[in-house]
Amino acid sequence: MTGQRTVLYQSVGEQLTHFDVDVEAATLARRGSVTLPSKVQYVWQHPSRKFLTVSTSDAPSGNTPDKGKVHCLSAVRVDANGALALHGEPQPLPSRPIHHCVDRSGNYALSAFCNPSHITVHRINADGTIGAEVAQNVKVDVGVYAHQVVTAPSNRMVIFPARGNDGRPGKPEDPGAIKVFGFKDGQLTALQSVDAVGKGGLDYRPRHVDFHPTQPWMYVNVESQNELHMHRIDGDSVIAKPLFVKTTLAAKHDPQFHQTNSAIHFHPSGRFLYIANRADSTADFNGKKVFTGGENSIAVFAIDQTTGEPTRIQSVDPLTHHVRTLGIDPSGRLLVSANIRDMWVREGNDVRLAPTALTVFRIGGDGKLTFARKYDIESGGKLQWWAGMMGLPA
After folding, report:
1. Is 358's pLDDT higher than 70?
2. Were 375 and a residue from 107, 215, 246, 358 both cysteine, which residue would form a disulfide, CB within 3.0 to 4.6 Å?
3. Which has the closest alpha carbon to 149: 112, 108, 182, 203?
């Protein structure tokens, strides 16, 4: 990856913004933006690196009565300097997409919808524009509250974590599961439903997965349980019982605080894995909703290259609250975390606003993170929903 130009793309509301990345200096330089049809939910780079696919929605979130009206999947052209431009006509989606991906052939875009749980497949045309939806021959079980869709390294399987929902007063818990589908020519078929805990999906909130770059190992961040599970992939199936289960937290969870994990990404070498832990509980103080406690951190795991066992070697404060996404540059030397919103914090008898930000870390040869700098973001009350780094075409 030496000499490859690296960019960071970041979303606030409907805006997707381009930053140039100086990997050596660990700096970000803001450039231009493109406006999408509604608020950006997720972004995925096409294998050609010439296009992005962007899913958007005007719904506030997945669990609100307001379901929104403008849900789209768009293609965005990436110029040689990283500048962005809408490419072709956005394709309508049935509801708010929470995640999407492009399959490893670059021929299909798969979208996950949380409420109600659903999956769609669209063709990607030869020019990179979004094509028609692929009508499915069979209906697959999509579980409750889907949260991610990705193709396995073989491209023959689709992994579809259906997180479920925690119970609350007057509403019982919804079970979680990882749905595994066969995938060929844009068609999905049912393969298995993974319940790693063995309780029918109770006490199991699988959110996202990532794959070791060379070994048949899949790692799952389990959201409400604040755990990392490692599963072995055997051909076109996932071994349901995890080989390793580790906490993602540095300290024992205090149940009075809302505590979950979010993003999970492998280092390009496969030797390290990074997971964001997030806390956002608040209480009234001096007329503001003020942060009350919990762990906001980036957990660094070293991966045993023989067994796949993850060992937490570091937990670093991103100096923000509620990190939702993070990105690693293709050379594996920088990590940037992105939190979702501003947060009021208490300082003695006063309060101050901790703004939405992008936090830049250097990645050492041992995988550990060293803080480089933080860029405060003027969000205007909107959410910084996504950020990620990628290399441009040579």
Report:
1. yes
2. 358
3. 112
Give residue-wise pLDDT tens across range 117-166: 999 999 999 999 999 999 999 999 999 999 999 999 999 999 999 999 99
Across the range 262-275, mean pLDDT stands at 98
At residue 65, the pLDDT reads 72
Backbone Cα Rg of the chain: 20
Please tell me the number of Cα atoms within 13 Å of 386 on its side-chain side: 22
Alpha carbons 106 and 89: distance in angstroms, whole number: 18
Residue 261 exposed, middle or buried by CB count within 10 Å (0-12, 13-18, 19+):
buried
CA 79 to chain centre: 24
User: Burial letters for 223-257: b for 16+ Cβ neighbours within 10 Å, e otherwise?
Assistant: bbbbbbbbbebeeeebeeebebbbbbbeeebeeee
Report d(CA 305, CA 387) in Å as an integer. 29
CA distance 335 to 359: 8
pLDDT at 2 over 70: no
Unique residue bearing structure tokens 């929104």? 68
Task: Give me the torsion for CA of 54, 55, 59, 65, rounded to 10°.
Answer: -160
CA 319 to chain centre: 19
Count CB neighbours of 109 within 10 A: 27
Residue 134 CB coordination number (10 Å): 17
Taking the alpha carbons at both ends of the chain, their separation in whole angstroms is: 10
* Percentage of the chain exceeding pLDDT 70: 98
DSSP E strand stretches across 49-172: 51-57, 71-78, 84-92, 97-102, 108-114, 117-124, 130-133, 150-151, 157-162
Across the chain, mean pLDDT equals: 96
What DSSP designation does 172 have? Answer: P
**How far lies 296's CA from each of 108, 205, 257, 277, 315, in Å?**
35, 19, 12, 5, 9
Give the C-alpha separation, 169 to 141, whole Å.
Answer: 27
